[in-house]
TrEMBL record:
Coiled coil: none annotated. Residues 81-190 form the TonB-dependent receptor plug domain. PANTHER family: HEME_HEMOPEXIN UTILIZATION PROTEIN C, TONB-DEPENDENT OUTER MEMBRANE RECEPTOR. Gene3D superfamilies: TonB-dependent receptor, beta-barrel domain, TonB-dependent receptor, plug domain. This is TonB-dependent receptor. One of its GO terms (molecular function) is siderophore uptake transmembrane transporter activity. Its main location: membrane.
Length: 839
């Protein structure tokens, strides 16, 4: 916050001091005049809430305290209700409170925002208003991005971003198109994560401090040996039987049902952060570790795997699984463990209060459970753990001089490097059909993909403001550049990797994209503001896949624009509208040859994706409405996303001399004719200081994906709301409705906070379809409506120590997450506790 003060003395005989404060907080000022001389006995002072003390050597005349009130530092939690547009804010405390079992759980409960494929990999893949994947919703951490896409076998591919929740200070989420420098190609929104700094660690008034955190969780079991089976036995259920029905237990694994007692700690986390601040330098050093085994599913709701029986024409029993997945209620869910270690170093150079340079380094290591989602169509089994090593370097520069309206410079630069080995166990069963109880497993062997990627980039922007004859004008301008490359790690023998170890060749190539933008905000009247931004972007990709004799190169460019209008008829009430057109170039995954696309890209050239987004909304922010110091916050918006040339995978129609129809279906990347997502969101929050509550709702009215005529086989539908055959859209269709209710109280002079959150996730907006190709195909995400109840508490013993205790999924519901790519149930009832010590 910038504050400017002018201290001036009125005529001596007045005995008063006049103080004028601009953009300040609430201050108290006092001065003392000597009756003998009519002059201040010491300099007038400006302090925060503390009047000057009288001199011990004189008999001064002490004036009454003069209180100067101004606007306090804005609360970032209010930004979603005071900013024209749809956004969300998550504090570090909220991340800790709702962090759940999997990394992406902290994103739950935000209208229009979901984390996809939450239970498979320990990563983040954000869906905003139906837009997901391949840079549509970039996730940046201190200005750095590192999205990598992992092949899921026949079941597609999932983009992933890795974040350690222990190092999160806060998160801001911008929904829809953005005019910011870091939003090139972000057709769905932007998630911006800030890591912890000195303000998160130091106690008030301290220059040096240490923060210790320790926590535990329940509801998990140690990871079993690789090859351990779990859940429903698909193979045994297909064996021929007599008219006698075999026992139900022979259809399931004998393991996985030893769920620990509710209050037995089975996993935990811990971190230490050290900070020091001086006038010139701020330093933060931190280490965090988190470990948990495979969690267990809930038991209520009736959706767990269970035996159902029918009879064929010969009155022989035909058995099947009546559940949502292969796993039973309360069963250990294989491949869901995590073992994370993280380091962080951040240094901020403060040249003056408005001039900063922040340098940072983070390292993230994880051994985690993962399975190709297509493997879950058979019997579930424990694979070897996958590993990831992520190094991130960041530099952030800010300069906003108080005496200049033309310089507000922001520069972010980063380098991120990922080494990701995704292990998948291949099992080759040898079945003895004379024994109908179970197939005999003969052998298994490792099968994995190894992805190495680097990404470096820089964004820069400046804002200049001035007063013109027609009102206030602010001009924003800047640009961004990113370079990324992907391939096998250095030193890896590709032929040995592929032919001896059974590894799948990954994409190999590079991509770069540059953009520049200029925007103008004009406020002709106090209650009226208009804005316009235009952006030009250009990209180049090079495909160096190992089967090529030469590099395949492609480039393209396009323009984006965004317009906004805001009316504020009275303070705290905003009516706004936004309309924009944004191009998205194919991501590096969509641009290179990979196992996900059988058809070469040079035979299937792509166009830029072009999004047209419209939003109409209202914000209301009021204080002291019904009670003294109460707060009312309301936001509501209608959104309409129309994306021409939507990029996805599909079963592409190709000519063939070996087909009776003359055409075959081949997996390839294509531009659809268009995709549409329309709907509403609304949220309301009320806080009296002692009691608080909020309600959020998101509702979709229309979703559709349409291909052009002649692209798919004749028997395929051209348009489907639930996604097209073999398309990633099958796993990106959100629920029609979501509701979140949060209620709580602050007691014992606000030392104790108690609360509960209820999340309702409705049915899928439209049913999906699945179609086999070869021996597999794309599986649409599948779930049934579910309601989750979480309770939480926090007690602040003193300024040094606080405790927190929460229960996730209080009713122990068995459910499948919305937008799942892998058929893995979510965690059942889990108790989490932690303690924080600061000194």
């Amino acid at each position: 916050m910038k504050s400017r003060y002018r201290l001036s003395a009125l005529p001596r005989t007045s005995g008063q001091i006049s103080i004028t404060a601009f953009l300040g907080t609430t201050f108290v000022a006092s001065a003392m005049l000597s009756p003998a001389h009519g002059q201040p006995s010491q300099a007038g002072s400006l302090s925060e809430g503390t009047p000057s003390q009288s001199s011990a050597t004189t008999a001064p005349l002490v004036l009454d305290t003069i209180t100067v009130k101004g606007k306090a530092e804005p609360d970032p939690a209010d930004a979603p209700y005071q900013t024209p547009g749809s956004s969300a804010y998550i504090s570090g405390e909220q991340v800790e409170r709702f962090r759940g079992t999997s990394v992406g759980d902290f994103l739950s409960g935000i209208p229009g925002v979901l984390n996809a494929d939450s239970r498979n990999s320990g990563a983040v893949d954000v869906n905003i208003r139906g837009m997901q994947g391949q840079g549509r919703v970039p996730v940046s951490v201190d200005g750095a991005t590192q999205e990598t896409t992992i092949w899921q076998g026949y079941n597609g591919a999932t983009p992933r971003t890795y974040i350690d929740p222990d190092f999160i200070s806060d998160i801001s989420i911008e929904k829809g198109l953005s005019s910011a420098a870091d939003a090139t190609g972000a057709t769905g929104g932007v998630v911006r994560v800030s890591t912890i700094g000195v303000k998160d660690i130091l106690l008030p008034g301290k220059r040096y401090g240490i923060r210790l955190k320790g926590g535990f969780n329940t509801n998990s079991s140690p990871v079993p040996s690789a090859g351990t089976y779990g859940g429903w036995d698909h193979i045994a259920s297909t064996l021929p039987y007599t008219k006698e029905l075999p026992p139900a237990h022979t259809r399931f694994s004998a393991d996985g049902m030893s769920r620990p007692p509710l209050l037995t700690p089975t996993g935990g986390s811990g971190s230490i952060a050290i900070a020091n601040t001086t006038e010139m330098v701020d330093i933060v050093v931190a280490y965090a570790q988190r470990k948990n085994g495979n969690y267990h599913a809930g038991v209520r709701g009736g959706d767990g795997a269970h035996l159902i029986v029918d009879y064929d024409d010969y009155e022989r029993p035909v058995v099947g699984n009546g559940g949502l997945s292969s796993y039973r209620a309360g069963e250990e869910i294989l491949n869901t463990s995590i073992d994370n270690k993280s380091w962080m170093l951040k240094t901020t150079l403060n040249f003056d209060p408005t001039h900063h340079l922040e340098l940072g380094y983070r390292k993230y290591l994880s051994d985690y459970g993962h399975v190709l989602s297509s493997r879950l169509w058979g019997m579930a089994y424990q694979s070897w753990l996958s590993t990831i090593a992520l190094d991130t370097y960041t530099a952030r520069y800010r300069w906003n001089p108080e005496d200049s309206n033309f310089l507000n410079l922001k520069v972010d630069a980063f380098l991120s490097a990922v080494e990701n080995r995704v292990n998948v166990m291949e099992i080759s069963p040898e079945t003895d059909y004379s024994d109908p109880t179970h197939p005999q497993i003969d052998r298994y062997y490792p099968y994995f993909q190894w992805v190495s990627s680097k990404r470096m980039g820089i964004t820069a922007s400046n804002t200049s403001g001035f007063i013109s004859p027609v009102g206030g004008v602010s001009v924003r301008y800047g640009g961004a550049f990113v370079y990324e490359e992907t391939g096998q790690p250095r030193g890896l023998d590709l032929q040995y990797y592929m032919w001896e170890l059974g590894g799948e060749p990954t994409s190999n190539g590079s991509r770069q994209e540059g953009s520049g933008f200029v925007g103008v905000d004009w406020q002709p009247l106090q209650w009226l503001k208009a804005g316009a931004t235009t952006r030009f972007s250009h990209f180049v990709t090079k495909d160096n896949f190992h089967t090529r004799t030469s590099t395949y190169k492609r480039h393209d460019s396009g323009w984006s624009s965004l317009f906004s209008l805001t009316i504020e008829p009275e303070e705290g009430l905003q009516l706004y509208t936004k309309y924009g057109r944004m191009v998205r170039a194919p991501s590096i995954f969509e641009s290179l040859t990979s196992p996900s696309f059988y058809y070469p890209i040079e035979k299937n050239p792509l166009k830029l994706e072009r999004a047209h987004n419209f939003e109409l909304g209202v914000n209301l922010s009021r204080d002291n409405v019904w009670l003294s110091d109460d707060r009312v916050r309301i936001h509501a918006a209608y959104f309409d996303n129309h994306i021409d040339d939507y990029l996805t995978r599909a079963g592409v129609r190709r000519e063939s001399q070996n087909s009776a129809s003359g055409y075959v279906e081949v997996l390839g990347r294509i531009n659809l004719d268009y995709a549409k997502m329309r709907g509403f969101e609304a949220s309301v929050a009320y806080d009296t200081g002692r009691y608080f509550g909020s309600l959020a709702w998101n509702h979709y009215t229309h979703i559709m994906f349409c291909a052009r005529k002649g692209v798919l086989l004749d028997e395929e539908p051209i348009c489907r709301a639930g996604g097209l055959p073999h398309s990633y859209s099958l796993q990106q269709v959100p629920p029609r409705n979501t509701f979140t209710l949060n209620m709580g109280a602050r007691l014992l002079q606000k030392k104790l906070e108690l609360g509960s959150r209820v999340n309702y996730v409705g049915s899928r907006m439209a049913s999906g379809i699945s179609k086999n190709i070869g021996v597999g195909g794309m599986q649409a995400s599948n779930w049934r409506p579910y309601t989750l109840v979480d309770i939480y508490s926090k007690y602040k013993l003193n300024k040094h120590v606080s405790f927190a205790l929460s229960i996730d999924n209080l009713t122990d519901r068995y459910y499948m997450d919305a937008l799942n790519a892998a058929l893995m149930p979510a965690p059942g009832r889990t108790v989490r506790g932690n303690v924080t010590v600061q000194f």
